[in-house]
C-alpha cells in the first residue's frame, strides 16, 4: 500500500508539478531572453536612426562625401566600450569601424533588408567571425533620388546580456529547486498522514477478518480517513454482535431441534418396549410424535425461509386475496391452543375489508408468527386481542396481549435477525425478521409497541390497491 500510494503520488502529483515547473522555467528563460534582446535592439535602432538623421543634414551640402563624413563620426564615437559604430558601403561591405580595428565582419547581412524594408532598418543577431554572439542594427542613408549612399551600423556584444540572463535563469532554477524540495517535504508528510493510517486500517481489517472482532482502529484525524476508521470500527461492532447472535441462534436452533427429536426418540422407544400391547401408551406416543414432528417441520421450514431471505430467493405469489380470511383461519388455529394454555382470544370481526394484492400463504405465515408470539409470551389468564379495520386506503391489523412485554432496551432490536428478547422462551430469533421482510415486500409496515410488565401490541399495515377506474384517472 505504501509503495503503491507513494508511487502514484510521485507519478501523478510530484511528476506533474515537476513538469509544470520545468515548463515555467523554460518559458521564463525564453521570455526573459526575448525581452532583453528586444531592449538591446531598440537601443541600437534608436542610436542608428539618430545618426542617420545627422547624416541627412550633411547630404544637402555641396560636395558631400559620405565616406569622409562617416569617418568623422567614427573617429569621434565615444561609446566603444559598449557598442561599435560601423559604416557600410552601398554594396553592403563594412568599410569602417569606430574601434580603429578591422571590422569583425566584412559584410552586413541585414543591409539589403534594411534598404528594402518600409522601416528602413534591419536587425541581425548571430555569431561574428570570432565566434562572439553579437547583435547589429543597420539604418541606410539615402540620396535625394532614393538610392543609398550606404548605411550606419551599430554592433554590440550580447555576452554580458547572456550572462545576466543566465544569472536570472539560474536564480529561478534555484528557486524552483527549493520549491520542489518544499513541495516534496510537505507532500511526503501529507502522504504519510494517509499511508500510515491506511496501513493501520488494513492491518486491523485483516485482524478482524481473522476472527478478532474486538480489534479497533484509533481515530487520529477528523476527516475522510477518520470516517473510514469509524466505519470499520462500527463494522467490527456489528460483526461481533452478529457473531454473538449467530452463535446464540445456532445454540437455540440446536436446542429447538433437540427437544422434538428427544421426544420422538423417547416415545418411539417407549412404544417399542410396550410391544403395541398398551393402546393408551400407543395413542399418547403417536400423538406426541405427530405433534413434535409438526414442530420440527415448522422449525425446518422457518430455517429454509430464512435461508431464502438471506439469499434473496424468497418469492411471493402476488394475487388478489381476502386478508380477512387468512386472519380468521389463523385465529381459529390458535384458539384451541390458547384455551389449553389458559388464555382467551378476543377477535373483533370486520366483514367490510376490501381485497388486497398479496401472497396468502406468506401473509398467513406473518399472522401465525405474531399470534404465536402473543400466546408464547402471555401468562395463563391473559387475553390476546385481534382486530382488523380499514383506515383510509390501508388495512390495519392489530394483535395485542397483556403478557410480560418487552424491555425498552430490547425493543429496538426485536425485528433483527437472531435477536431474542427473552432467551428463556423457545424460539429461533428469526421469525419476526422474516415476518417484517414479508410485510415490507407487500409495501406495508410491521410496528411493535411494548411496555415491560404491561403487554405488547403489534400493528400490521397493508395498502389497499386503488380501483382500476381510479388508477386510470390518475394516469390521465
Structure description:
The structure is a single chain. With 476 residues, the protein is of the alpha+beta class. It has 3 domains: 2-164, 2-Layer Sandwich (Beta-Lactamase); 224-311, Signal transduction histidine kinase, dimerisation/phosphotransfer (DHp) domain (Helix Hairpins, Orthogonal Bundle); 319-473, Histidine kinase-like ATPase, C-terminal domain (Heat Shock Protein 90, 2-Layer Sandwich), CATH 3.30.565. 55% of the residues lie in helices and 17% in strands. The chain has 10 helices and 12 strands. It has helices at 2-59, 66-75, 111-116, 159-209, 224-274, 279-311, 323-340, 360-376, 431-441, 468-475; strands at 84-89, 94-97, 122-127, 133-142, 148-157, 319-321, 344-348, 356-358, 383-391, 394-401, 445-451, 455-463. The strands form 3 sheets. Strands 2-1-5-4-3 form a 5-stranded antiparallel beta sheet. Strands 7-9-10-12-11 form a 5-stranded mixed beta sheet. It has a two-stranded antiparallel sheet with strand order 6-8. Helix 4 packs parallel to helix 5, helix 5 runs antiparallel to helix 6 and helix 8 runs antiparallel to helix 9. The two termini are 58 Å apart.
Amino acid at each position: 500500500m505504501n509503495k503503491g500510494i507513494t508511487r502514484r503520488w510521485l507519478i501523478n502529483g510530484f511528476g506533474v508539478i515537476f513538469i509544470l515547473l520545468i515548463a515555467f522555467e523554460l518559458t521564463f528563460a525564453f521570455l526573459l531572453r526575448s525581452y532583453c534582446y528586444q531592449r538591446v535592439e531598440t537601443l541600437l535602432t534608436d542610436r542608428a536612426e539618430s545618426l542617420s538623421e545627422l547624416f541627412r543634414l550633411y547630404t544637402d551640402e555641396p560636395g558631400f562625401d559620405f565616406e569622409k563624413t562617416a569617418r568623422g563620426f567614427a573617429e569621434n564615437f565615444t561609446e566603444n566600450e559598449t557598442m561599435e559604430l560601423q559604416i557600410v558601403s552601398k554594396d553592403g561591405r563594412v568599410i569602417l569601424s569606430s574601434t580603429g580595428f578591422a571590422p569583425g565582419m566584412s559584410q552586413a547581412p541585414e543591409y539589403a533588408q534594411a534598404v528594402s524594408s518600409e522601416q528602413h532598418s534591419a536587425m541581425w543577431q548571430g555569431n561574428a567571425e570570432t565566434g562572439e554572439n553579437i547583435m547589429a542594427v543597420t539604418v541606410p542613408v539615402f540620396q535625394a533620388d532614393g538610392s543609398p549612399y550606404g548605411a550606419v551600423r551599430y554592433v554590440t556584444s550580447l555576452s554580458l546580456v547572456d550572462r545576466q540572463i543566465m544569472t536570472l535563469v539560474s536564480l529561478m532554477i534555484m528557486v524552483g529547486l527549493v520549491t520542489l524540495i518544499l513541495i516534496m517535504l510537505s507532500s511526503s508528510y501529507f502522504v504519510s498522514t494517509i499511508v500510515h493510517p491506511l496501513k493501520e486500517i488494513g492491518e486491523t481489517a485483516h485482524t478482524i477478518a481473522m476472527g478478532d472482532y474486538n480489534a479497533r482502529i484509533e481515530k487520529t484525524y477528523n476527516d475522510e480517513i477518520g470516517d473510514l476508521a469509524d466505519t470499520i470500527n462500527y463494522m467490527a461492532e456489528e460483526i461481533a454482535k452478529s457473531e454473538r447472535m449467530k452463535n446464540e441462534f445456532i445454540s437455540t436452533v440446536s436446542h429447538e431441534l433437540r427437544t422434538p427429536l428427544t421426544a420422538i426418540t423417547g416415545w418411539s422407544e417407549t412404544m417399542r418396549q410396550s410391544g403395541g400391547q398398551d393402546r393408551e401408551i400407543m395413542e399418547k406416543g403417536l400423538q406426541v410424535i405427530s405433534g413434535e414432528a409438526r414442530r420440527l417441520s415448522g422449525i425446518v421450514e422457518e430455517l429454509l425461509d430464512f435461508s431464502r431471505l438471506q439469499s434473496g430467493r424468497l418469492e411471493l405469489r402476488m394475487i388478489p386475496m381476502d386478508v380477512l380470511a387468512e386472519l380468521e383461519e389463523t385465529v381459529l388455529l390458535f384458539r384451541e391452543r390458547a384455551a389449553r394454555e389458559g388464555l382467551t382470544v378476543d377477535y373483533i370481526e370486520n366483514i367490510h375489508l376490501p381485497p388486497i394484492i398479496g401472497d396468502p400463504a406468506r401473509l398467513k405465515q406473518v399472522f401465525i408468527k405474531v399470534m404465536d408470539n402473543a400466546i408464547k409470551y402471555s401468562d395463563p389468564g391473559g387475553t390476546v386481542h385481534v382486530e382488523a379495520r380499514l383506515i383510509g386506503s390501508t388495512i390495519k391489523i392489530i394483535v395485542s396481549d397483556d403478557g410480560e412485554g418487552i424491555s425498552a432496551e430490547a425493543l429496538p432490536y426485536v425485528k433483527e435477525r437472531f435477536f431474542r428478547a427473552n432467551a428463556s422462551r423457545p424460539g429461533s430469533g428469526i421469525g419476526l425478521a422474516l415476518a417484517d421482510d414479508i410485510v415490507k415486500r407487500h409495501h406495508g409496515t410491521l410496528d411493535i409497541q411494548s411496555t415491560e410488565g404491561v403487554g405488547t401490541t403489534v400493528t400490521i399495515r397493508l395498502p389497499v390497491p386503488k380501483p382500476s377506474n381510479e388508477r386510470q384517472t390518475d394516469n390521465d
